[in-house]
Amino acid sequence: MSKENTLPAKVTDPFRFAENAIHLQGTLLVKNMERLCTGLSSDSGEVDISMVFGVDEQKISFIRGHYATHLTLQCQRCMELFDQQLAGDFLLGIVRSEEEAGTLPERYNPVIVANDNSLIIQEIIEDELIISLPIVPMHNASECNVRLPLSSSSKDLGEIEKQNPFKVIEFLRKKQNSTK
Fold first, then answer.
1. Residue 18: in which H helix or E strand, if any?
2. Per-residue pLDDT tens for 25-41?
3. Residue 70 pairs with which residues in a beta bridge?
4. Would you call 126 exposed, middle or buried from its count of C-beta atoms within 10 A (0-12, 13-18, 19+)?
5. Where are the domains of the chain?
6. Tens digits of per-residue pLDDT, 45-100?
7. Smallest Cα–Cα separation from 47: which of 27, 25, 24, 32?
8. Measured CA distances, 138 to 81, 133, 144, 154 (Å)
């Protein structure tokens, strides 16, 4: 990826960055994101990131950004590996405390600065990626090696249940009577 990497590991004064409308872009390695890697099948790859700091009309300091990457996940239907493209935008309100986070407008997700007045960029991006992961990773049905049952067979099963939903009880009663 040939973009100039201007991403610092740590932003030491995000409020000053916001006042100066600083723009950062670059890449982070997936393998350095331990929390994210626990949900992946491979730690290879990079995340392209572009972010701009700013202050809105309400004097709220914010970070507006975009990320894009390809991650290797394991399909929970066929158990084979597949490549999942993740891309998204984020809008974060920079705050100093949980109380201040509660006052942010809904359009902002809060990011709380550390006690030393800093933000760690990798942690912000890692959080965004973690919440973007699918809950149950699966190929598209057309690409998966496991074929689901035909809809007609499940339809037939539903018809049998509709005809006599107590068939199981009848069977259990007959079984119980035959053992006496």
1. helix 14-19
2. 999 999 999 999 998 99
3. 85
4. buried
5. 10-132, 149-180
6. 999 999 999 999 999 999 999 999 999 999 998 899 999 999 999 999 999 999 99
7. 27
8. 9, 11, 8, 22
